[in-house]
Amino acid sequence: MDKWILLTHQIAQDAPNLRVKVWRNLKKRGAVLFKNAVYLLPYTKEHEESMQWICKQIRDSGSDASLFITESMDKKHKEEIIKTFQEACNKEYVPCIDQCSDVLKQIEQIEGTEGVTDRSVEDLKRKLSEIVKSADEIAKIDFFHAPQRDEFLEKIESIRKRIEKWSKKMKEEAPVVNTVYQKKAFLGKKWVTRKDIYIDRLASAWLIRRFIDPNAKFVFISKGENNLPKNAIPFDMYGAEFTHHGDACTLETLIKAFDLKDHALRPIAEIVHDIDLKDNKYNRKESEGIAQIITGLSKKLNNDNKLLEKGMEIFDALYHYYTTKTKGGN
Length: 330
Fold this sequence. Notes:
Elements: E1 3-10, H1 16-28, E2 32-34, E3 38-42, H2 45-60, E4 64-71, H3 75-113, H4 118-141, H5 147-173, E5 190-194, H6 199-212, E6 217-221, E7 233-234, H7 250-257, H8 265-277, H9 287-301, H10 304-326
Parallel strand pairs: 5-6, 5-7
Antiparallel strand pairs: 1-3, 1-4, 2-3
Helix pairs in contact: 1-2, 3-4, 3-5, 4-5, 6-7, 6-10, 8-9, 9-10
């Protein structure tokens, strides 16, 4: 493209609102300030009409504006103009790229904490949609394919692939919540989960030892470690059978998978759910206090085995409380 529309204006000093309004209109249409002298747009009939409208707006407000149609003097001049457009769009893409990077970090965090749920997938889809919508507006004025656009598209594709992988994995794992497992097949086992246990893994370990496998042994592995102990049963880990399913945390999955009917487990599961998923689904008033206790112990002990030992006492106490309450005791 060698043909361009140029706009120059002299807006009165006492009209700052008009100056801002004109700048926003020019920016919205993709016009760039070339050599701090004139605003440029590639020539199209549509662009010409838009610039004429802006000129009229300036003049009607008592200031001055002029519009010119010209051509590039030579190849070097054309390349310089195109580079100006690309640099302007590069700056516009940067926030979108940063948002994509934040989403990818969030994905890593969710995978690292095994918190993949229908809710988290939908949340990421919504964020992706918002980012793409913003980028679509930039694409409308990216007349010369700014280099940052490629980086942005790569990140978008990466996010889409991860979401698709999650969705597929969750569909494959969905039957577990409809399967009832026999406790006798899980006696005397070694159970494995990630290090730095928190509420869901802690509560799940308590449930396993108290209701499924009294002699269960627990192993904690580092994030990203794929070599699980031989014959160990993973829980609250991405890709495991006993982990998050739909909007259920791992504790809820275990209760359903082993068909545990004890009524005292329900309020405990609701507390753990609210703390772990932070969605306030059950609005349990106890959640904040329990979360503070577990967080404090975790920081104080800084050791998974010691935290597990203390956690067993906490959940034993909770279970005793709700058992007594269920039976109508004081």
